[in-house]
Design a protein that fits this description.
This protein is of the alpha/beta class. It has 15 helices and 15 strands. Strands 1, 2, 3, 4, 5, 6, 7, 8 and 9 form a 9-stranded mixed β-sheet that branches. It has a 6-stranded mixed β-sheet with strand order 14-13-10-11-12-15, with helices on both faces. The longest helix has 20 residues. The chain is elongated and about 85 Å long. The two termini are about 50 Å apart. About 40% of the residues are buried. Bound molecules: adenosine-5'-triphosphate. The site of adenosine-5'-triphosphate has 20 residues, from helix 5, strand 11 and helix 12. GO terms for molecular function: ATP binding; CCA tRNA nucleotidyltransferase activity; tRNA binding; tRNA-uracil-4 sulfurtransferase activity. Belongs to the ThiI family. Its EC number is 2.8.1.4.
Length: about 400
């Protein structure tokens, strides 16, 4: 069926009182962003609905992209017909016919926003219902739990019909909760944490630590490609790559093995906090889940958090690994995350890190370092890459590699 528009219903927005307008504006601009390469598509964000006029664009493609936009409760592809009963009935019959296989019962649900139109809501429901019963005698009407709802919306510029309601991504429009810095490794958990933060309206920047030559170009490309996956939910993301080699080498040289992990993590957090301050981030997100590995005990969090007063938000803190993996699969980051490119933490991980580090000791060991100098040099080396939705980095690497062979 050639649809004319997609009618979008807002999610939690309706509960947001006086912020409503800015939420709707933001959702409108987020939808515009994900459809930017389809210039024929026009978007109009009204108080209660958002209308995406397709003007000939492929509805399947638009539907697939809308499914990823946070702040949408659900949406319906609709067809516009002339403002007559005959045109409405003909199109409704065509829609029902397409779904006959799975439909035994139906109802008509009319909404009339143009009160000048001569047929009112009840009359349209009844007349159209009778017309469809006559056209499809095998069907019956069920107003409580119908298999199919034929929705008719009478507007000043036409009558819009739809029969499908597609589930949206829920959540809040990205950007309505401010900016956060996500500490993104190449693992399974931090991309999921990023996704969950975005779902609550956070516009996320990625902070990734890498340690060449100990970590490969592929490890960096993997983190960038994970960012591309996440950008499908939020539009373009700034990826901040922070050189971490000097810090890791120095920590390894000066700090006892049991505290290597703790001191490295304190340095990572300090750097992320410094970047947040510079770039107006309001909080730091990471992929820690309580009790999973050595650095993720509460004692360890206490010894690491010490370096900043910024809120540290851990969206996956209470999830089991299997639950995190399930989300990673759903958002299509899992297969990338399990690629075996080591990141900087695995390489410098001591065989037996302290699971319950002591805060005072961590401070003492750290005082052996020139924290200021190390921080400054790392910050001076930060490179920012703009990553677009679905952008691939690993494939390019593989191609380059293939060319060398
Ligand atoms: N190289 C890195 N760059 C940026 N952040 C990192 C890096 N390594 C670890 N982190 C952050 O620290 C958190 C804890 O890392 P750790 O390696 O202990 O846990 P993990 O459960 O393996 O997490 P993940 O699956 O996200 O790597 C990560 O979720 C991530 O937020």
């Amino acid at each position: 069926m050639q649809y004319s528009e997609i009618m979008v219903r807002y999610g939690e927005l309706s509960t947001k009182g006086k912020n409503r307008k800015s939420f709707i504006d933001r959702l409108g601009s987020n939808v515009r962003k994900v459809l930017h390469d389809l210039p024929e598509v026009k978007i109009q964000a009204n108080r209660d609905r958002l209308h995406v006029s397709l003007n000939g664009a492929d509805s399947d493609q638009v539907v697939d992209r809308l499914k990823l936009v946070f702040g949408i409760q659900n949406f319906s592809p609709s067809v516009k017909v002339d403002r007559t009963f005959e045109a409405t009935a003909e199109m409704a019959a065509q829609m029902v016919k397409e779904q006959l296989g799975t439909t035994k019962t139906f109802k008509v649900n009319t909404r009339r926003s143009d009160h000048q139109f001569p047929i009112d809501t009840n009359e349209m429901n009844t007349r159209l219902g009778e017309y469809l019963l006559e056209a499809f005698p095998e069907l019956s009407v069920d107003v409580h739990q119908p298999d199919l709802v034929v929705r008719v919306e009478i507007r000043a510029n036409g009558i819009f019909l739809s029969s499908q309601t597609i589930q949206g991504a829920g959540g809040l429009p990205v950007g309505t909760s401010g900016k956060g810095m996500l500490m993104l490794s190449g693992g399974i958990d931090s991309p999921v944490a990023g996704y969950l933060g975005m779902k609550r309206g956070v516009s996320m920047e990625m902070v990734h630590f890498f340690s060449p030559p100990y970590t490969s170009e592929q490890a960096l490309a993997k983190a960038q490609e994970l960012t591309g996956k996440l950008a499908r939910y939020s539009g373009t993301i700034q990826f901040l790559q922070v050189p971490f080699t000097e810090i890791q080498e120095t920590v390894k040289e000066k700090v006892p093995e049991g505290y290597l992990m703790t001191v490295q993590r304190r340095m990572m957090l300090r750097l992320t906090a410094a970047l947040a301050l510079k770039r107006h981030g309001l909080a730091i997100f990471n992929g820690e889940s309580l009790g999973q590995v050595a650095s993720q005990t509460m004692e360890s969090m206490l010894a690491i958090n010490d370096v900043t007063t910024l809120p540290i938000l851990r969206p996956v803190v209470s999830l089991d690994k299997t639950e995190i993996i399930k989300i990673a699969e759903d958002i299509d980051t899992y297969q990338l995350s399990i690629l075996p490119f080591e990141d900087c933490c695995t390489i410098f991980a001591p065989p037996s890190p302290k699971t319950k580090p002591n805060l005072e000791r961590a401070r003492v060991y750290e005082s052996r370092l020139d924290v200021e100098g190390l921080m400054q040099r790392a910050l001076d080396g930060v490179k920012i890459v703009e990553v677009h939705a679905g952008e691939e980095f690993l494939n390019q690497e593989a191609d380059a590699f293939a060319e060398l062979l």
